[in-house]
Amino acid sequence: MGKDFLQEFVQQAAKENAEKIAREKRKKYFQELGRKGGLKNKQNKKLDKVISIRMTNSEYEILIQKQKKYPLKLSSYIRNVLFEKELKINEFQTDEVLLQYGNHFKKISNLLRNREWSVFENKKEILVKIENLIELIHQYLYSKTQKNE
Q1: pTM of the entire structure?
Q2: 102 vs 3, 7, 76, 117, 127, CA distance in Å?
């Protein structure tokens, strides 16, 4: 009886010690990741160099007008133009209405699948036509973007 109690006590102490070590390892792991357990900061592409230039008011106004076409900060816009990167921020800006129609048609088809709309006798035909229309919209938009590339 004394040996069983002693064995159980030793096993329980070893188990608690292993749990304690696991908790400490976990705590140290998150301390290594950073404060509050977050991920380490990215080390690549830090913008740490500053260049200042002078320009006339008219040049500045032209630059601001060109930059307003894109949802970018002025410095990001200048960097993209300087390194001749393409400004493909709004790929579908001209077809925004068409995209909205596609989204609305998807919502309508989801509503039609609901039981409350079972009063329509030709519900399946309507769903098929809507899905075909959505597919045509997507094909048109993606073919247009592939032509631009």
Answers
A1: 0.35
A2: 76, 70, 32, 20, 13
